[in-house]
Amino acid sequence: MIEERFDAIVVGAGMAGNAAALTMAKRGLKVLQIERGEYPGSKNVQGAILYADMLEKLVPDFREDAPLERHLVEQRFWMMDGKSHTGLHHRSDDFNEEKPNRYTIIRAQFDKWLSSRAQEAGAVVLCETTVKELVQDAYGKVIGVITDRDGGEVHADVVVLAEGVNGLLGTKASLRERPTPDNVALAVKEMHFLPRETIEARFNLKGDEGVVIEAAGTISAGMTGMGFLYTNKESISIGIGCLVADFQKSGETPYDLLDRFKKHPSIAPLIEGSEVKEYAGHLIPEGGYNAIPQLYGDGWVVVGDAAQLNNAMHREGSNLAMTSGRIAGEAIFQVKSRKDPMTKQNLALYKKMLDDSFVIKDLKKYKDMPGLLHIQSQNFFLTYPQLVNKALQNFVRVDGTPKIEKEKTTIKSFVSARSWGGLFGDAFRFARAWR
Ligand SMILES: Cc1cc2nc3c(=O)[nH]c(=O)nc-3n(C[C@H](O)[C@H](O)[C@H](O)COP(=O)(O)OP(=O)(O)OC[C@H]3O[C@@H](n4cnc5c(N)ncnc54)[C@H](O)[C@@H]3O)c2cc1C
């Protein structure tokens, strides 16, 4: 056993763990952070869009040396069928501001950098070490961890579980349930490398400007899911994900979906000639508010994806992870500075502070996320994308058909696919989801 005792042990060096370790180390707490990967970020997968506001709260001067790719000036939302897409695009020069709002990043580089900030602040980071289980005393209080190293038991006043979506440690210690297939999505992602000038010409970009494409429709074969394409400096991240329960039911495989997405005539020219250097698959928690487990107990708190803190509707996860990690670190510091013990009662402060933040306020809006995502998924991800694309093509194609006939054809195609009642019902459900 390592005799040295720590104020806090953080399990995992992803967004949530690094935020917690940095926050506590900056305030003078003695922190040990344990990461199973070769280095922080080596195991982590993200699109990846980074939300600057939440990072700025942790590292106000991050723009000076963080490994950022492109700042985003344009967002494209595409509704796709087999051969077409209908898009809603927002591009603004306002995003070329002095302190841009969103950036693309590469997690392997970013996590290493954020971890270096935690280490500079005094956190001890131990990589290539897996925490096998939590140590609990006779009353069930978490008092440390057991790692896969020789004599690898270490003790601390509190353990921060930042172990990501699978949350195996928490489940093993009966602190939370295992996530169910309708509460998690499985996403696959590839990195396509291209010369910088090619990316800038294809996406109409100058300097470090970047574009994001979020795509839904027949690409997910009727399942609830989305595709994405993000521009980095010299690469393009492209991926797709759907709920695990949907994959189970449909028998579709994620790599087949990604293959079809890449071959779509709207996507293929954007990645043409690229060299694929990385392929990754990862789960994303999408259960919403109702899936959030108990967030604290005697001697422990849980943060980030391990706490299911992910907003699938808005494609946000890393910012919820960073914020929950930071808030957990601040709460632990407050308890410690009052010289109070790390009991369940005292650590409830973390939950209270999280409730007051955007994290829980946003997730409360989507209490039953799987229910919401599953509403008429065949209609929203198959029927409507096909109808909308057909209608738009009918609208722009000039072929001598009188406009009044074109309008009648379009209305008829919608009403024959869904009754008037069905159409109004779906419109109502869609509006309610976004209210
Ligand atoms: C394909 C994809 C695209 C995404 N795109 C975006 C996006 O664009 N923007 C966004 O905000 N979010 C996005 N997300 C979500 C985002 O990646 C997560 O919300 C975020 O990574 C969660 O951070 P975390 O620190 O909680 O978990 P993770 O980043 O998963 O970190 C957990 C860490 O714990 C370590 N670990 C696990 N178990 C142990 C153990 N027993 N012992 C030691 N170490 C352990 C792991 O190795 C890992 O380093 C995306 C996710 C995926 C899969």
Q: How would you characterize this protein structure?
A:
The chain is α/β, with parallel strands linked by helices and 435 residues long. The chain is 37% helix and 26% strand. The protein has helices at 15-26, 52-56, 107-120, 168-172, 196-203, 244-250, 254-263, 268-271, 318-337, 344-355, 358-364, 369-374, 377-396, 403-417, 420-434; strands at 5-11, 31-34, 49-51, 68-80, 85-91, 102-105, 124-126, 131-136, 142-147, 153-161, 184-193, 209-217, 225-231, 235-243, 275-285, 296-297, 300-302. The strands form two sheets. Strands 3, 4, 5, 6, 11, 12, 13, 14 and 15 form a nine-stranded mixed sheet that branches. Strand 8 and strand 9 form a beta hairpin. Helix 1 (15-26) runs parallel beside helix 3, helix 9 crosses helix 10 and helix 13 runs antiparallel to helix 14. The longest helix is centred in the last third of the chain and has 20 residues, at 318-337. The structure holds flavin-adenine dinucleotide (FAD). Flavin-adenine dinucleotide (FAD) is lined by residues 11-17, 34-37, 43-49, 130-131, 162-164, 169, 187, 189, 239, 241, 282, 284, 304-306, 310, 315-319, 321.
Please state the average pLDDT score: 94
Number of strands: 17
The end-to-end span amounts to 54 Å
Low-confidence stretches: none
Count of helices? 15
Q: Largest beta sheet, briefly?
A: 9 strands, mixed
Instruction: Label the overall shape.
Output: globular
Q: Determine the fraction of residues in helical runs and give it as a percent range.
A: 25-40%
Rg, Å, rounded: 23 Å
Strand proportion, as a percent range, falls in 25-35%
Query: Which molecules are bound besides the chains?
Result: flavin-adenine dinucleotide
What is the SS-derived class? alpha/beta
Family: Belongs to the ETF-QO/FixC family.
Cofactor: FAD
Keywords: FAD, Flavoprotein, Monooxygenase, Oxidoreductase
Function: Could be required for the formation of a functional nitrogenase Fe protein. Probably accepts electrons from FixA/FixB and reduces a quinone. Part of an electron transfer system.
